[in-house]
Design brief:
- The structure is a single chain.
- The chain is an alpha/beta fold and about 750 residues long.
- The chain folds into three domains: about 240 residues, polyphosphate kinase like; about 170 residues, Endonuclease, Chain A (2-Layer Sandwich); about 220 residues, 2-Layer Sandwich (Endonuclease, Chain A).
- The chain contains 22 helices and 27 strands.
- The strands form four sheets. Strands 14, 18, 19, 20, 21, 23, 24, 25, 26 and 27 form a ten-stranded mixed beta sheet that branches. Strands 10, 11, 12, 13, 15, 16, 17 and 22 form an eight-stranded mixed beta sheet that branches. A six-stranded mixed beta sheet has the order 2-4-3-7-8-9, with helices on both faces.
- Helix 17 packs parallel to helix 18.
- It is globular.
Length: about 750
């Protein structure tokens, strides 16, 4: 069956990878924003660095394979850009962002920290004052751990670990045996704190561990003079994709892939400013990296592999690996430099409960994290584990907390109590594979029936079902969510969950678990929309329905809050809906390949992104207005991988009070944000939505205040939606920006 050619051109779309870099640029803006508390700014720098690491380990690694081999992309870029061209543009944009990152650190955050009494000293500035405490710490804690490694024919180059921090030194022999000149490395131990206090219990004055070790290189390489030294860090391809073939034991297969990760190809080399050219040449050649000699000082002299216009070597003016700033934010005990502490409130309808199941049986319950507590979700599983009336528990686990996970412990306890417990553990949750393997083993030992889903599909949906005997009847209680069963991320990710005892939804959830555990595929889905079977088709159908209503002159509307929008067919359906006149508001936190505001293509589409204290993670979908309005929550973004290669669930919110809360409270609060919202322009750049003459609105803090007002027993709206710590002022009535724009146009016309 042939399909008609697309009426849309490559230039009508934004490149996926470049769009992601613009998302990370918005994260960096939060570090640069002096309105944010100082330690929160440092954390945003750490988040920016961690995001960039993962981007290189996964996305850049994949593009590199495509550019330098015959491998074809799973999802061809919507803008038609070839892999090498993408790599070149990524490198140029990354260099700009990294320069901004270190400019922020060196010129803004470090001086501000010093002014606040928190100082990061250079060892060379301390030598004259004496460093007895540091000397003792080095001898007792550092020296026994570090290993000096010479590199020569008798000592081959070690395999440098992914994201490991290394000191590289050029040495010259003064006495004893060994070559006259020598290259050597020392790995900075990851098991020790990166920030070392000048004195025990000092939480204000620090040196970096790598700087301390560098000052002690003569002790580590006795008999040699240190000619030169610098630091470097290598990022490797860390994406693992299981082959589309059966494995006797998926657990063992994943474990073997994890071990192979440390031996993968390098995709990025970070070096300290002024790195010795000979050392740089050795690293570039040994790791088979591409380097643009116009970008890195000393590379012309060093020679080595050069690919004009494409660079994988980044020269850093400051400490390498800014992810360490998470550590600084934790050890410095200064509440005045942090956000006010978060106190999640009880969810609406669960202010007090003795019997959670009775509450769910009475009415559907919406949970909005982190503003509302995650405790009822934990209670849902824990109470079920101990309730003698509960017969079975079924749950998906994509990412859960490390350490003593209360969800996993409750499932294990339920199995030990003789209940039928099934856990669908997704072993392919990227960078959580090792954690999930540990939990899978633990659950199996406790007697839980552990299933790993399909080899070719990730199980990304978030579901839990409790089967309970009540008198002569058996009743099922369900929790569905946009986020994971992780109490830690529930404090920093915004997500929505739904408790329901709806029989039709319970039938669908039962059928979905049967599909995951036994390949059962004959069920007719009634309320849930499932990927990969029909989520994409139903999404496009819902968009097309609004387009048809607009063509008929009827009221129409589309609102979508997602993490990413990449799928080409879905974007084309949105373009066609826009051409029909449908007003479309898209709140896309991260990647967006759609270009809004293109004449005659996307004129009625607006795209916004909110980056603030909490990571926007909830997926909310609204189609239509008034009596025709349909509201859904989903575990899926509008991306090919979610539609085609994952098990996902989109579920309806049908209770009128919950729908009204989403449509009249949550969404308008986001749409009125003029402090942390950015608007996407047709050229792919973002601009902050300014307050102009309107009162300032910061959506996340207004949602915090709203939850707090409920927690204090006050009616919504009975107090102004303010957050005193940052003097936000009061919230208006949640009007949309579009309404504000209409008012401005009327004022202009009157003038």
């Amino acid at each position: 069956m042939s399909t008609a050619p697309s009426p849309f051109l490559p230039e009508h779309f934004i490149n996926r990878e470049l769009s992601w870099l613009e998302f990370n640029a918005r994260v960096l803006e939060e570090a640069q924003d002096a309105e944010n508390p100082l330690l929160e700014r440092a954390k945003f720098l750490a988040i920016f660095a961690s995001n960039l690491d993962e981007f290189f380990m996964v996305r850049v690694a994949g593009l590199r394979e495509q550019a330098f081999s015959d491998m074809l992309p799973q999802d061809p870029p919507v803008d038609g850009l070839r892999p090498l061209a993408q790599l070149q543009r990524i490198a140029r944009r990354t260099e700009q962002l990294v320069a901004r990152q270190y400019d922020c650190w060196n010129k803004s955050i470090v001086p501000a920290l010093a002014e606040a009494g928190i100082r990061i000293h250079a060892m060379k500035d301390l030598e004259a004052k004496g460093t007895k405490s540091l000397d003792k710490y080095f001898r007792q804690a550092v020296f026994p751990v570090v290993t000096p490694m010479a590199i020569d024919p008798a000592h081959p180059s070690p395999r440098f670990h992914n994201r490991g921090l290394y000191l590289a030194a050029m040495l010259e022999r003064m006495s004893g045996i060994g070559p006259q000149r020598l290259f050597a490395v020392v790995q900075v131990p990851q098991v020790l704190p990166r920030f070392v206090s000048l004195e025990p219990d000092d939480k204000q004055d620090f040196v970096l561990l790598d700087d301390l070790i560098a000052s002690r290189l003569p002790e580590l390489f006795g008999g040699y003079r240190i000619v030169d030294h610098g630091t470097f860090r290598i990022t490797r391809d860390m994406d693992i994709e299981l082959l589309e073939q059966e494995a006797d034991d998926m657990l063992r297969s994943i474990e073997s892939r994890l071990r192979a990760r440390q031996r993968t190809e390098a995709v990025r080399l970070e070096i300290s400013k002024g790195m010795n050219p000979a050392v740089l040449k050795m690293l570039v050649t040994e790791e088979e990296l591409h380097a643009d000699n116009k970008s890195v000082a000393g590379l012309s002299e060093a020679g080595g592999a050069v690919e004009v216009g494409y660079n994988e070597v980044y020269e850093i003016d400051g400490p390498l690996d800014m992810t360490c700033l998470h550590e600084l934010a934790q050890i410095v005990d200064r509440k005045d430099l942090r956000d006010p502490p978060l106190v999640p409130r009880p969810p609406v309808g669960l202010e007090r409960y003795d019997d959670l199941f009775a509450e769910i049986a009475e009415h559907d319950i919406l949970l909005h994290h982190p503003y509302e507590s995650f405790l009822p979700v934990l209670d849902f599983v824990t109470m079920a584990a101990r309730d003698p009336q509960v017969l079975a528990i079924k749950q998906t686990l994509y990412r859960t907390s490390g350490g003593d996970s209360p969800v996993v412990q409750a499932l294990a306890e339920a199995a030990e109590n003789g209940k039928q417990v099934t856990a669908l553990v997704e072993l392919k949750a990227r960078f959580d594979e090792a954690n999930n393997i540990t939990w899978a083993r633990h659950l199996e030992r406790a007697g839980v029936h552990v299933v790993f889903g399909y080899m070719g599909l990730k199980t990304h949906c978030k579901l839990a079902m409790v089967v309970r005997k009540e008198g002569k009847k058996v009743r099922r209680y369900v929790h569905l969510s946009t986020g994971n069963y992780n109490p830690n991320t529930a404090l920093v990710y915004t997500d929505l969950g739904l408790f329901t005892a709806d029989k039709v939804i319970a039938d669908d959830v039962s059928a979905l678990f049967n599909f995951l555990t036994g390949y059962s595929q004959k069920h007719e889905w009634q309320k849930l929309v499932i990927a990969p079977s029909d989520l994409k088709g139903r999404t496009i159908e819902l968009i097309n329905e609004q387009a048809e209503r607009a063509r008929e002159g009827k009221r129409s509307r589309i609102i979508a809050k997602l993490n990413s929008l990449v799928d080409r067919r879905t974007i084309e359906a949105l373009y066609q809906a826009s051409q029909a006149g449908v007003p479309i508001d898209l709140m896309i936190r991260g990647i967006c390949c759609l270009r809004p505001g293109l004449p005659e293509i996307s004129e009625t589409i607006r795209v916004f992104s909110v980056v603030d204290r909490f990571l926007e993670h909830s997926r909310i979908l609204v189609f239509g207005e008034g009596s025709k309005e349909q509201v859904f929550l989903s575990s899926a973004d509008w991306m090919p991988r979610n539609f085609e290669r994952r098990v996902e669930v989109m579920f309806p919110v049908e209770a009128e009070d919950l729908r009204r809360r989403i449509v009249e409270e949550i969404i308008p609060t986001y749409m009125s944000d003029n402090r942390r919202m950015r608007m996407l322009r047709p050229d792919g750049t973002y601009v902050r939505v300014s307050a102009t003459d309107a009162p300032p609105h910061r959506s996340q803090y207004e949602l915090l205040t709203l939850a707090a007002s409920r927690g204090n027993g006050e009616a919504a709206g009975s107090i102004p939606l303010s957050f005193d710590a940052i003097a936000l002022g009061t919230s208006g009535n949640g009007q949309s920006l579009r309404e504000g724009e209409k008012r401005k146009k009327k004022k202009s016309s009157a003038k």
